[in-house]
Structures are given as structure tokens and as C-alpha cells.
Write a structure and sequence with these properties.
Blueprint (H helix, E strand, L loop, with lengths): L5 E2 L5 E5 L2 H4 L12 H6 L21 H10 L4 E5 L2 H4 L9 H16 L3 E7 L5 H5 L7 H17 L5 E6 L1 H10 L10 H25 L9 E6 L4 E3 L4 H24 L4 H6 L13 H5 L5 E5 L4 E5 L2 H5 L7 H7 L2 E2 L6 E3 L16 H13 L5 E5 L17 H19 L4 E7 L18 E3 L6 E3 L1 H12 L1 E2 L1
Parallel strand pairs: 2-3, 2-13, 3-4, 4-5, 5-6, 6-8, 7-9, 8-12, 12-13
Antiparallel strand pairs: 1-16, 9-11, 10-11, 14-15
Helix pairs in contact: 7-9, 8-9, 9-10, 15-16
Bound molecules: 5-hydroxymethyl-3,4-dihydroxypiperidine.
5-hydroxymethyl-3,4-dihydroxypiperidine binds next to loops.
């Protein structure tokens, strides 16, 4: 007997997502310059398994086959990112036509297979030359980003309906400059907050720049968005200090992006709470107005809830932005990137291979919260997925029932949110294929398609076929 399905509204978009450094490889080809991730991944000790993105999935040379794979399940949409150092190798100035040509061909190949492209302009691969001048702690980087956005918008905007300025600026700022777990690997709270502001400013400036080059109407309608990895923050207890720590982390992780972008102001309480870290002098007159450009879509990436408690006086006294396994074990919590006032608590329950708690109901709750506090902006889930210890079975196929169940439960959670009135327009599974998982290297597999990193052969997992059924039925069982 066929199971009843949760059907999604007509026109709901189903897609998969990837990012340039995680899949492309070809890091020295056709004029691409070094990014902060090339430097970071080649620095001993930074990547868990010692791998780099030098080859990754070799997507740069396999575009046709990878897009053909998408067509096998009738994939309606594909979210990829453009590598800034391929297009403007030194971050500002000369444009590398070969880099633009690669993405232009990719867009044409997608459209020929009826796959709608969604382009992210920045998924973490900052040109190294810009980092040498301070990276996201340097206000000038925001201006360079706007110029780069205009270059890509002018080249692809006739065929790409939606551009996303940033993917997860939280990671760029707090993991890149706050805890040092991502490139460029700095661990300095005040640098992280300056990076947040310059990323926000860059988003605003790039949105204006895109508006000036994108078609306002027509089949490619020039939509602009940003993707945030919003946290659903839960206090570890009902004690007032833990509740207060959760509010603080909510402001630091979510509202520090959402409020300036969608309301034109930073949360006042957060600014007060962090005066011992920064004087916020990097926020200049007119900046918040420049950041709050009208947006067409808000992208949300969601994987797992965040549970925090207040840090103790002793923890604050010995606070260090970098955490290690020993610290995690000893403290029963890890410093929350960007603050000494809250500690992240280990999660209890079913976990993915990232150690992330599986709690799909928190996605519904997060979506309702965003809808309530920031009404009127359509939402797209631009990433959701799970890493598991995938190994091909005797038949050579990964039978990933755990991933199917994770995805099914989260898609159902989105359906529930839509039923409660949240305007969610699409869902992109992370990821099309296994890829370079940043500081975890090639050791964590999120793909719907298995990649053998020796032969680079792609083999669809069960979840890939399952996703094809979801697309065909516009819903899940
Ligand atoms: O692989 C990453 C992606 O680049 C950004 N969002 C989270 C994914 C899983 O960690």
C-alpha cells in the first residue's frame, strides 16, 4: 500500500547544494589564485585528516557528468558557489575571463538540463591577497566584494534568477577569526566582531551593486538573498543565568546578522554585553542603512540545535577561543565562538557523524520564530543534511537509511512550518555529493552521491534515488 504523502505547495523548489572549494579541485588552473582555504588546508595540523581541496571531487573537469547525474533524478534546482579567486584572482582589479567562462558554461549546462541555478557569491574562499591585507577585519574587503559581485552579476545575471551574497557569514567570522577552526585561523574575539560587521556591510554593498546590473524582470528576475546558518538556541536549564546565556548567544549568532540586514540596527543589549571585547568603532555612520537593503529571499541553513549554559567565573578567567578535545571533555562544554559569556553543552540523543544532535522539530520552531520576528520575507532552506559513516555495501552502493530518515524528518518539519503559516519556498539538500568538509577534510560524507576519492567515481546512494521520488511526488511519505 502506498503511504500517504505530505505534499508541498505547487511551485515549491527542490534542489541540492555544493560549494566551490569543497568540490571543484583544479586550484591552480586557468588563472585561479590562492584562497585562504588553500593556505589553511596546506598548513599542517589544520585539517583533521591532512587532506586539501586541491582535487576534492574534481568537479571542475567533470561538470557535464555531474549535471547529467542531476538530470537522472529530475533535479529542479542546484545551488553552487563561485570562487572569487577564479574570477578576480587578487580580490580587486583585473577580472579573469577564464574563471567567468567556467561558471558561464556551468550555468548553460544546467539550463540545458532544465536545472535552475542558484548562485552563491561567497562560500568562504577569500582571495589570499585580500587576507594579506586583513581579510574581513579590513573594511576595504567589503568594497572589493561589491565590485566582484557586480562582475559576476553582469556575466551570469541574464540566466541566473537568484544570487546569494554570502553563505553562513557566522562561520567566516566566528570560526575564521574567533575560534580559528576555519581559514584564516585567527582566534581573536574583537577581530571576529569586526569581521561580522564587514561581512554585513559587504552584503549590503553587494546587494546594491547586484541591483544595478541584474535584470529587474523577465525569466531571470534578479532576486537577491543571503544565506544564514541560524541557530535554534536552547538554554541547558531553566535557571535565569542559562536563559540569559541563550539570549546572548541568540543575539550573537542570529540577531547580529538578521537585525541589521532586515531591521537596520544591531541588537543594543549585545553591544553592551560585549563592550569588554570591542568598542564597536568599526560601525560607522550610515553603515546599518547600507546593510539593510531590501531582500527577495532569506536562505536558511539548518542542521542541529545549539544548547548553551552560562559560563562560570572560573571558565571566564581561563577563557580561550580555541577549544580542543581535552577542553571539551574537561569542561563538559566548549567556549561558544565569539563570547566568553556562554558555553556550548554536549548534546544527548541521536547524533550524526559530526556529533550533531538530530532534532527536526527544532527546525519547525526556528522557522516559526523567524517568520514571527522578521515577517514578510520568503524563506528557502538552502542547506540541510547529515554526515554518516557511509561505506558502500557488497553491491558497491551506499544504503544510507539513516540519511534518508534524517532528510525525511527535516523535510516533514519544513512541511509542518508551512502548515503553520511560514512562507518557505524551497529546500536544498546538502550535499549533491560527498566533498571536502572543511576542517574535517574528506573524513565526513554529506553527499546523496558517494565519491570514491581515489578513482573519483560517483555512485548514487539510496538517498539520491529517494530524493528523486520526493521531487517527483512534491512531498515525502
Ligand atoms: O559543508 C558545510 C557547508 O559548506 C556549509 N554548511 C554546513 C555544511 C556541513 O558542515
Amino acid at each position: 500500500m502506498t503511504q500517504p504523502r505530505l505534499r508541498f505547495p505547487d511551485g515549491f523548489t527542490w534542489g541540492t547544494a555544493t560549494a566551490s572549494y569543497q568540490i571543484e579541485g583544479a586550484v591552480t588552473e586557468d588563472g585561479r589564485a590562492r584562497s585562504i582555504w588553500d593556505t589553511f588546508s596546506h598548513t599542517p595540523g589544520r585539517i583533521l585528516d591532512g587532506t586539501t581541496g586541491d582535487v576534492a571531487c574534481d568537479h571542475y573537469h567533470r561538470v557535464d557528468a555531474d549535471v547529467a547525474l542531476m538530470a537522472e533524478i529530475g533535479l529542479p534546482a542546484y545551488r553552487f558557489s563561485v570562487a572569487w579567486p577564479r574570477v578576480v584572482p587578487t580580490g580587486g582589479g583585473a577580472v579573469n575571463q577564464a574563471g567567468l567562462d567556467f561558471y558561464s558554461r556551468l550555468v548553460d549546462t544546467l539550463l540545458a538540463r532544465e536545472v535552475t541555478p542558484l548562485v552563491t557569491l561567497y562560500h568562504w574562499d577569500l582571495p589570499q591577497s585580500l587576507q594579506d591585507a586583513g581579510g574581513w577585519t579590513n573594511r576595504d574587503t567589503a568594497e572589493r566584494f561589491a565590485e566582484y559581485a557586480a562582475v559576476v552579476g553582469a556575466a551570469l545575471g541574464d540566466r541566473v534568477p537568484t544570487f546569494t551574497t554570502f553563505n553562513e557569514p557566522w562561520c567566516s567570522a566566528y570560526l575564521g577569526y574567533g575560534s580559528g577552526h576555519h581559514a584564516p585561523g585567527e582566534a581573536d574575539g574583537s577581530a571576529a566582531l569586526a569581521a561580522v560587521h564587514h561581512l554585513n556591510l559587504a552584503h549590503g554593498r553587494a546587494t546594491s551593486a547586484l541591483r544595478s546590473v541584474l535584470p529587474a524582470t523577465g525569466p531571470s528576475s534578479g532576486q537577491v538573498s543571503i544565506t544564514l546558518n541560524l541557530a535554534y538556541v536552547q538554554p541547558a536549564s531553566e535557571q535565569p543565568e542559562d536563559v540569559r546565556a541563550a539570549e546572548h548567544v541568540d543575539a550573537l549568532a542570529n540577531r547580529i546578522f538578521l537585525d541589521p540586514i532586515l531591521r537596520g540596527e544591531y541588537p543594543a543589549q549585545l553591544q553592551d554585553d560585549l563592550r569588554h571585547v570591542t568598542d564597536w568603532s568599526f560601525v560607522r555612520d550610515g553603515d546599518t542603512a547600507a546593510i539593510a537593503q531590501p531582500l527577495d529571499v532569506l536562505g536558511i541553513n539548518y542542521y542541529t540545535p545549539t544548547i548553551v549554559r552560562a559560563s562560570t567565573t572560573a571558565e571566564r578567567a581561563t577563557w580561550t577561543a580555541r577549544w580542543s578535545d581535552e577542553v571539551i571533555g574537561a569542561l563538559g562544554g566548549v567556549p561558544y565562538p565569539g563570547t566568553d559569556l556562554a558555553v556550548q553543552v554536549p548534546k544527548d540523543g541521536p547524533l550524526t557523524a559530526m556529533g550533531w544532535l538530530i532534532a527536526p522539530e527544532t527546525l519547525t520552531a526556528l522557522l516559526e520564530r523567524v517568520h514571527r520576528d522578521y515577517p514578510g520575507i520568503p524563506i528557502v532552506i538552502t542547506e540541510n543534511g547529515a554526515a554518516f559513516g557511509d561505506e558502500p555495501g557488497a553491491d558497491g552502493v551506499v544504503h544510507d537509511a539513516d540519511r534518508i530518515e534524517y532528510l525525511r524528518a527535516h523535510v516533514a518539519a519544513v512541511h509542518e512550518a508551512i502548515g503553520r503559516g511560514v512562507d518557505v519556498r524551497g529546500y536544498y539538500a546538502w550535499s549533491l555529493m560527498d566533498n571536502f568538509e572543511w576542517a574535517f577534510g574528506l573524513s565526513r560524507r554529506f553527499g546523496l552521491v558517494h565519491v570514491d576519492y581515489d578513482s573519483l567515481v560517483r555512485t548514487p546512494k539510496d538517498s539520491f534515488r529517494w530524493y528523486g521520488e520526493v521531487i517527483a511526488a512534491n512531498g515525502v511519505a
